[in-house]
Amino acid sequence: MNKDINVLTVELAGQSLMSDVPFNMPFDTSLDATHNIHIDRLSQRLTAEVSQRWAASVELTTGSVSVAADWYGRWLSRSKAAFIHADKPLHRSVRALQFLLEKDLHLAELLDNMLRQGSALQRSEMEVEHAVVETTDEWLLCLHHAVTSAPKFELERGFGLDPLYGVLVFMLATDAADEFFSHEAVNRCFLQMMNTWYAFLSSPASLSTLNTGPNGWLCHESWVRNRLDQYVTSRMLTDDPVHWGFSTYLSFQNRRVIQICRPLDGYSDTPEVNSIVVSPCDGRLSEVLHSVNRKTHVMLRDQSALLSTLVPDDAEFHSEGADFFRINLGVFDLHRWFAPVSGTIVSVEKIPANRCVAPLLQIMALDPAKSSVNTMVRILIETKHAAGNKKVLVLALGSASSSSVCSYAKAGQCVEKGDEIGWFNDAGGVICLIFEANLIERFIHSSPPQQLSVCQQTHLRAKAQIAVVDI
To answer: Per its UniProt record, what Pfam families does this chain match (predicted)?
Structure first.
């Protein structure tokens, strides 16, 4: 950390909280927006039908294509330089895909088409020359590099690149991607690779990028961009000056926040204050719907889904007339999530994704449930209400890997509003709240207009008030 910066020290419970940015610093979501939609812009080149439908719901950021292409191109250059000429065996999860391609010549042909179209797309979007993956052997080596590497801090972006996504990003916008990634055996291979990557990120070997170097997550630029003053205490710096108390990359990614930085709104025993519902997480308010039912379409990440595919059956949860509230987490947001109300947990389920990788045509399909790439944790909380107990459904959506979203919650457990109940292991999670009819009197915020850009959406703080219960 740069010792010349003007450090503000706040004494808290015997520890000092170091900060070089004010506590009320506005959340900068401009980079989140570019990260979330660059693949949409790339898809315009090869999938016109998808682009037309996507453009209706997503505001495209000028210049994001060349920025994204340069970003991924530089990563691929490093990947090839490190591994193309190295005499190292492929990881067994990558070898499984290699064996599949050797046995299935049709899949091998589809891969050749994807590589050819993807490399052409990458070259057309790059402003400077970078390495382009053009052969199956190069691609497999880059996949090996991806599942055995921890993301580095990217100074220009302010956050790290998902290595596996970096290998696939251009290929997912090609015509051949639909059939290739629809193959069940291919999906099994990629799911195994994703789980391999999460296992690596949970190991001490992933600490290689947790340092104060230019691409280390503990450098001064990362301290500012990732607001590490809200997570790192002076005691952590003193006790472990090398890794600041983080034992693995994932322990840094899903780090806990210092409590004072996420105070609980409505902390009191009075009925009026107990009527407050709080945000379960940091993130952008993306959608508020009233009087929904099982046939209502809602957005989850970038996919539309029927409410009936998300909620339990009517005997357990009454969805008719319910209120729906969706929050999208950004890369700089706290990855922990909390109980929005006090009550008793009725049930906890983890629902696996039925697809590991979905190309753009599948994501925008008329039946998107068949191409779901999100593992979902579903928690049902029963809360006391004057007119009888009501239920709140908490949906937490991660990526395809079962390790991407986790929860401590147990059926029968009593939770207090603001209790931590889960976490995300990767960026870009989504939390949805569904309230049974007549539970919510009013929401503090309304649904953002469709024409509003991602950067302009209201940013919510975890444990801040979002609604009032009808008491």
So the answer is: PS_Dcarbxylase (PF02666), PSDC (PF12588)
